[in-house]
Every structure is written in C-alpha cells, then in structure tokens.
Amino acid sequence: MNGTDSPKTPAAPPAPRAGQREARAWLLGVLGWLVPGLGHLAQKKFDRAAVFFVSVVALAGLGLAMGAKLYGPPFARDQGLFLFALHVLGFFGDLGAGLLFFAARLAGWGQTYMGRAVGDYGTVFFLGAGLLNLLTALDAYDVAVGKKE
Amino acid sequence: MGPAGQLLVLSHFEAMTLFAFFTSLVFAFLSKRGWRDRAKSFLWTFLLFLLAGVGLGWLMYPFPR
What we know:
Chain A is mainly α.
C-alpha cells in the first residue's frame, strides 16, 4: 500500500470512454431538440436551460397566437420547384422546435394560411423558434463533449 | 380575438421588438459566459436588430408595393 493513500479519500469515478461520452452528448442534443433547454438542464446548466426554454416557447407560442402557418407534408408541387424547396426548408426549420412542432400539428394549429401580415409575422416567429432551438441543441451537444464550457 | 381567429394582433414594430428581444437573449447566452458579457452582448444585439429593422424599413419607403 502506498503511504500517501488515505483510506478516507473516495475513489474517483472512472472517466467515461470516448464512445460513451459521444453517445451521451448525442442523447443530450436530442433531448435539447425535443424540449428546449432540457439538454442543458440535464447538465446542470440551469441559467441557460431556463432562458432557452422561456425564449423558444415564447417565440413559438406568440407565433401560433399570431396565426403562424406551419410547414409540413404534403408539399404542393404545382406552384413550382422554388416554392416547393422553400416549403421543404420551412418544414425543417419548424421541425427544429421539437415537441412544440409535433404538439401544434397534432392540435391542428397552423394548418391554414392567414393571408395577413400578422400571420406572416407568426410564421417567422415559429420558424425563428425552431432555428434557435436547433442552435441550443447543438450547444448542449458541444457542452457535453467538452468543446464548450 | 383578432381577424380570422388570430388571438394576437401586433404592429410590425411590436412584433419586431419581441422577436429581437428573445433572439438576442438566446444569442447572448449561447455565445457568452458571465453575466456582464451576456448583458453587453444582449443589449448590442437587441439594439442592432432594432436599428437594422428601422433602417431597412426606411430604405424600402420609396417602394411601398
């Protein structure tokens, strides 16, 4: 036995292998995508989790209240390739909001185009919420792999 | 209740200000650590959002349609 070892010192937990760490980071990223801020909450980054949750949910909620049009299949192809591509990209942007998007679609919100300026604002609000949530999910991944603090 | 079943009807400026507020907040928390740096980043981003919005609005003033 080494003379410097103290019996009261708890043994340090084994460091996770690189593969385990990567898998955990992916899981936290997916959690952060599904529920805004959850990836940070699971890593005890409480301030970031709260701000991301409140901001993304507020943007998505305001967007829906303003009459946002949510993009999603089926995509109409009769209006040309450009509009088709824009709708597909809009769908991926909206999808970034995670469970908020699925809940809104299931509830039947955002299915009709309002044709008014404030409805367009709402569409942009929801799209902004989705894109910001993707950034926060990537941040949760980066924190988990140690690229960021 | 607003037109066509909308719960909320905001002016362009109100919508822009709300969007700028929440977006700047998320950007500040994503890019900075420490409350002082975050506050500075938030204020700068928020102000630049508003200035850019109003500036672009004035540039488009001669082209109403």
